[in-house]
Write a structure and sequence with these properties.
globular, mainly alpha, ARM-type_fold, ARM-like
Length: 95
């Protein structure tokens, strides 16, 4: 079990250590790694990225996290993160 947490920590450290100045790595490996992020604040930041692939991946991850569980406390964490206005903004986007 400890190995799993250590591997997860190293994986996350690698992702965040290899980012550009604006905080986003612009390659497909980073987009694919978004599926492992569970922190609402990190997902909110990613959904505001200038890269549409990162935006889409983060919004899909948010949807998956919210629909995967009936635990109401998960909803509270996302609401408190301020993600709702960001999601509404993306819903209004016409592209």
């Amino acid at each position: 079990m400890k190995f799993k947490y250590i591997a997860f920590f190293i994986f996350n450290f690698y992702i965040y250590a290899n980012t550009y100045e604006d905080g986003m790595q612009e390659d497909s490996d980073f987009v694919e790694s978004i599926q492992y992020i569970t922190d609402p604040l990190k997902l909110k930041k990613l959904s505001l990225s200038s890269n549409p692939d990162i935006q889409l991946a983060s919004i899909l991850r948010i949807r998956k996290l919210l629909s995967a569980s009936n635990d109401i406390s998960k909803y509270d964490a996302f609401i408190e993160s301020g993600i709702i206005p960001v999601l509404v903004k993306h819903l209004k986007h016409k592209k």
